[in-house]
């Protein structure tokens, strides 16, 4: 077999492959055997039909087509290996010549990973937010804890902001009650903004048994986006009572004996959370600075596939779980479809560039992934997915996604190398030491990256690794 590589552009090549006919013989024999098992010819036992009879009855062309289809993947793979290429996605194959008993020639166009030169990154310098915890931050943290221990009790008075009301709702559009526009026994906290616009004003001042009507734009349902006349009836008003901020509360809400000890612990937790946020901010800024130093051409088809996958995941997974569609999501975000598409393209481009650059760094720095590192990463991914480690591991293995996880860990290590080489200062001019930084759970903060799953690693598997990790960081920060 002979092969030649033609570079069509920095991210696409055309392979021209010539295969002597004798190299097709194993596939040709397999084709005859397969056809033997599928057809019946009078006078011959099944599976014992001579090749010349198959040629006469079904045509030599049918056998050649079967043989070539069976052999092409191997010849293509051999040509890729010979050319030392890193293909992305499936090739576009065209059989240009097929001479029986002489020669098979075909071409294959395919996207490839571009050649990337990693420049000296030791001069990267970024500025991050300083770690500061104020008394107001502690007050807010303790107040949030206090609200978790609030109690409610019915009151015989008009509802006011902060009260909890139990209400019945009925929505009409053009004078007709909507099929999905009736709800009873809804519990709502006045001022929370969790229901329809205008409801706070409508129920404020009403006692149990009181009714009101207001107009609001529906945020969901069959008449989403339409103006509706909404009737609301209050069946119960409850007042929230917060516990006193004293040592008794500290003993109720924590393992501490005094309020002072509880506040001190809150300060430590907030400091750890802010340090974790600082480390994450440093990683993100260092990554952005690194990407600015590297020119990364992106295959057009790969980019479009990534955009489509991200959009599909958003529409059918993330928004679907929240009961939203893309149109309502854009309304909530106050974005046009054009703005959304532009942002999605920018995110996809950054994801692909990030993966290409970090993968090249893995090769340049000769980074490897140990079993313990992979196991720890799997445990974290399982936790963020809501699955048990065993379930997640089984899903990864069955889906053939182990290389994907290895890649994630390796890219994290590559980014860590760059972060370690960079100079990180806070906005007060102080040098930030990120070595062995721990988050509030006690886990060492590791470098993470916004990776993109290319044709080699399906984006569905990551549904956005980045979103999943971002949510995990947010959960940790909030805790």
From TrEMBL:
Name assigned to this protein: Trigger factor
GO molecular function terms noted in the UniProt entry: peptidyl-prolyl cis-trans isomerase activity
Family classification: Belongs to the FKBP-type PPIase family. Tig subfamily.
Domain PPIase FKBP-type: 162-215
Compositionally biased intervals (Acidic residues): 432-443
Catalytic activity: [protein]-peptidylproline (omega=180) = [protein]-peptidylproline (omega=0)
Low complexity: compositionally biased ranges: 444-467
Keywords for the protein's UniProt record, in alphabetical order: Cell cycle, Cell division, Chaperone, Cytoplasm, Isomerase, Rotamase
Functional description taken from the UniProt entry: Involved in protein export. Acts as a chaperone by maintaining the newly synthesized protein in an open conformation. Functions as a peptidyl-prolyl cis-trans isomerase.
Location of region: Disordered: 426-479
HAMAP family found in the cross-reference section: Trigger_factor_Tig (MF_00303)
Principal place of residence: cytoplasm
SUPFAM superfamilies in the cross-refs: FKBP-like, Triger factor/SurA peptide-binding domain-like, Trigger factor ribosome-binding domain
Protein's organism: Streptomyces asiaticus subsp. ignotus
PANTHER family the record matches: TRIGGER FACTOR CHAPERONE AND PEPTIDYL-PROLYL CIS/TRANS ISOMERASE, TRIGGER FACTOR-LIKE PROTEIN TIG, CHLOROPLASTIC
Biased composition (Basic and acidic residues): 470-479
Cell compartment(s), UniProt: Cytoplasm
EC number from the UniProt entry: 5.2.1.8
InterPro entries documented for this protein: PPIase_dom_sf, PPIase_FKBP_dom, Trig_fac, Trigger_fac_C, Trigger_fac_C_sf, Trigger_fac_ribosome-bd_bac, Trigger_fac_ribosome-bd_sf, Trigger_fact/SurA_dom_sf
Domain of life assignment: Bacteria
Comment, domains: Consists of 3 domains; the N-terminus binds the ribosome, the middle domain has PPIase activity, while the C-terminus has intrinsic chaperone activity on its own.
UniProt cross-references to NCBIfam families, sorted A to Z: tig
